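Second opinion, please. Pick holes in both lines of this record:
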Amino acid sequence: MNKVVVLGATGTIGKVIVKDLVESGIEVVAADLDQARLDELAAWVGKGVTTVILNIRDFEASKEVLRQGSVCVNATNYVFNLDAMKAASAVGTSILDLGGLFKYTNEQLKLDDQMKLANVLSITGMGSDPGSSNVFCRYGVNLLDTPEEIHIRYGSTSSGTTFAFSADTIIDEAVKPAIAVQKGKLVEIPPLADEEFTQFHEDLGIQKTYSIIHSELATLPTSFPEVKEITYKDTWDPSTIEKVKMLEELGLVDTNALEDGTVPRRQLVSLLTKVLAKKENPVWGTDSLLVEVKGKKNGNQTTVRLELLTRYHHEWAVSPTQYATAIPASIVAQMLLKGEITEKGVKPPELCVDPETYFSYLKSKNVELYITISETQKQ
């Protein structure tokens, strides 16, 4: 059964996953809540896609849809990751998602025995970051004799008000405490704090990056316990930070219901989605995913630096962030279909996706991957 089921198929990232899978010759079952949006997706993608209406909270309906494919890509909001995994295990379908923003990833890892019993694999976080970032970390760790530090950074030259992925997730990243590993221990850092200047590729230059909560920190510390320093930082527009903090102070990002049942966050996200959709298009630039793994090689201090550049995809009218997030999910779904990933249970990308095989797929995509290995030798 050479089919992939994509949940959340009409979303910002989901639709690009569907597009790339179909362009790669894979049949897709696209599932989402709105038939009108599914029809738009089918028209955009063309042949090779079947659409179906689905509420992922409906367990029985989810099982029926997931039975139609041997692999599922869950591109819904991360709060539905557990629902999707349970339905997948019930029908023997391997599944991958785009990340659980640390907390949900930890809950997903607890289903390892359940997924093994179903003889399927669930990959936690296989987008850009988490996803490519985790695979890059594995590549760097493999090259070193003694890995000591991992630093993940994301930069962008896009400008204007953008929601390249879920507005809910973006708000959470801005208001929840960040996580890092310092001296071998997990520590919390205030959101959008611990800023630094990061040197990206010359197309981006130097940008200020900030610590935010991210799923990599849920798995990298246990996957690579010998690494004592692990950080994740992302670039943010200062004016955006100011606006989010104001919304937080006003209580508009609160997820708790008011006395009348209104949930401020739900109202805010709904309004933002409608208003921003009518605004002028932002100016898309270049995105960079940068991973540096530092340690010892042959007794010398060595740094392995991987940097993935993504630009606006003109043919598809897709932003750099959309493309950078969707393509990894499509690639790994195809690797699963071809039997190039054989692990079972619940695994993060760094423990089940072979870097060299993954890189071979990336070469055919609209991205640029630069790898630099620098070794300091004492003469």
About this structure: The chain has a mean pLDDT of 93. The radius of gyration is 20 Å.
